[in-house]
Amino acid sequence: MENRTPEQARELLYTKKTVYERRSAEAVDEAYAYSRGYAEFLDASKTEREAVKTAIALASKYGFREYSFGDEIKAGDRLYYNNRGKNLFLFSVGTEPVSKGIRISAAHIDSPRLDLKQVPLFESEGMAFLKTHYYGGIRKYQWVATPLALHGTVAFADGTTRDIVIGEDPSDPVLYVNDLLPHLGHKDDLKPLGEAIVGEKLNLLVGSRPLGEEAEAIKLNVISILNEKFGITEDDFLSAEFSAVPIGCARDAGLDRSMICGYGHDDRVCAYPALTALFESLDSPHTLMCVLADKEETGSDGSTGMQSDLILDLIDAIAASQKVTAAAVRANSKCLSADVSAAYDPNFAEAFEKRNSALLSCGVVLNKYTGSRGKYSTNDAPAEFIGWLRGIMAKDDVVWQTGELGKVDYGGGGTVAKFVSKHNIDTVDLGVPVISMHAPYEIISKVDIYEAHRAFSAFNRY
Ligand code: MN
Ligand code: MN
Fold first, then answer.
1. 137 CA to centre of ligand 2 in angstroms
2. H-helix or E-strand containing 152?
3. Helix (H/G/I), strand (E/B), else coil: 288
4. Residue 269 alpha carbon to ligand 1 centre in Å
5. How far is the CA of 267 from the centre of ligand 1 (A)?
6. How far apart are alpha carbons 452 and 448 in whole angstroms?
7. Is the distance from CB of 297 to CB of 108 less than 8 angstroms?
8. 212 burial class (0-12, 13-18, 19+ CB within 10 angstroms)?
């Protein structure tokens, strides 16, 4: 046996270091500068529809043009497929044969929020409200007594559509969900946290001024304002998608400005670096694909979610353009499921197992598995694929860490990973650690998002 000193033996241990320990001050400045572009992306992309538009505008600057099925695809092409305005596939065709596989980065652009119901408007005791049906996993008590904006699209019966945003301009009115005053909240305070505010209490306060003296005069006033400003009637809500989201722009957080506080980091904080890494890697010999998915927060169902066969159809089209089988392409493809991870929070230490949790500012997080209980409903990436990724990230000196959502048996969650890996594509979750995930305003570290950009870039290039 070799005689090692304790110091030498220590070299054999896995140690987690922060980006600040690993990088120069200049490199940290670079990361902070990068995060400004992210904050702009976040502000312009509060819904999946807005994120698709923002991403197309960015991609167009890099020469991406719209693809339709049947169009020719050849090496060097930079294309995007806009799926119903809510889900976007961007791909660049490399110089090497596509039979070597596609490098796929798949993030989602939907976030938890309050969607309007189909027949939302009602009046009661001097106030008018819009009824909501929450979207995704929310802690309902977080959505009361805070200003909200309405973002939506109306599809009129004549085939035209209209985008509507109310509450973002400082001169706009805001919407609000009422909460009970503490003076009368003593009984509610004894309820479990998840029961004090129930879904049917999440009604948006939208008016208190009557139009005339008839019944439902406040409701009449609200609908006439909506009609005057946006040309909509109550019927138009039937074919509309409206979401109430927290108002305002992403802001620097912390006295040291090291973090960003904003709505919808999950998962635009991974969508943005996946996009910028694609743009930066356009000279890669590999065929690259960046997916911005919808419906992840509700299980990836539907025509715009990752369970749709659209990804297969696009891979089919790319494979056919080089006269190879899609099966061969998929067998050699690799995917980073670009999604956020829970950052260890010392304020809620009881929910985390520290050794296997992601820490804020320790870089991008690789989650071998997600799911719940005994690893149910998870991709659980093959060790060999993770080994390959370790090598790639080491080449570019990416600061990365492992993560697991929380303590075993405390809960769990899922990502799109299992919906990609089922197509015979090696897939693993890689993303940015988030504090207060799914809260109206979440927190991320500026240095972590930049390491995500570096990780996706390395994945695209090597
Ligand atoms: Mn997510
Ligand atoms: Mn989520």
1. 7
2. strand 148-155
3. strand
4. 9
5. 5
6. 6
7. yes
8. exposed
Retrieve residue 150's tokens: 């309405």
Residue 89 dihedral angles phi and psi, to the nearest 5°: -115, 120
- Ligand number nearest CA of 340 is 1
Half-sphere exposure of 224 (CA within 13 A, CB side): 10
Integer Cα distance of 93 and 101 in angstroms: 11
Listed residue (141, 128, 299) closest to 226, CA to CA: 128
Q: Output the 3-class SS for 323-373.
A: CCCHHHHHHCCEEEEECCEEECCHHHHHHCCHHHCECCCCCEEEECCCEEC
Per-residue confidence (pLDDT) for residue 341, from 0 to 100: 97
How far apart are alpha carbons 363 and 365 in whole angstroms? 6
Measured between alpha carbons, how far is residue 388 from residues 120, 391, 394, 428 in Å? 51, 5, 10, 11
What pLDDT was estimated at residue 54?
Answer: 98
> For residue 1, what pLDDT is reported?
61
State the Cα–Cα distance between residues 142 and 148, nearest whole angstrom.
Answer: 12
pLDDT at 186 over 80: yes
Closest ligand relative to 269 C-alpha: 1
CA-based max dimension of the chain: 94
241: nearest Cα among 291, 179, 304: 304
Residue tagged 């652009």 (tokens): 109
DSSP state of 169: S
Give distance in angstroms: CA of 438 to centre of ligand 2: 6
The closest of 298, 279, 260, 244 to 456, measured between CA atoms, is 279
pLDDT score of 56 more than 80:
yes
In the chain the domains, ranked by start, together with CATH numbers, are 8-111+263-461 (3.40.630.10), 113-246 (2.30.250.10)
Residues 6+ apart with CB under 8 A from 450: 19, 30, 31, 34, 35, 273
Span 224-232, mean pLDDT?
97
The 3-state DSSP class for residue 81 equals strand
Distance 321 CA to ligand 2 centre (A): 36
Report the pLDDT value the prediction gives residue 419, as an integer from 0 to 100. Answer: 98
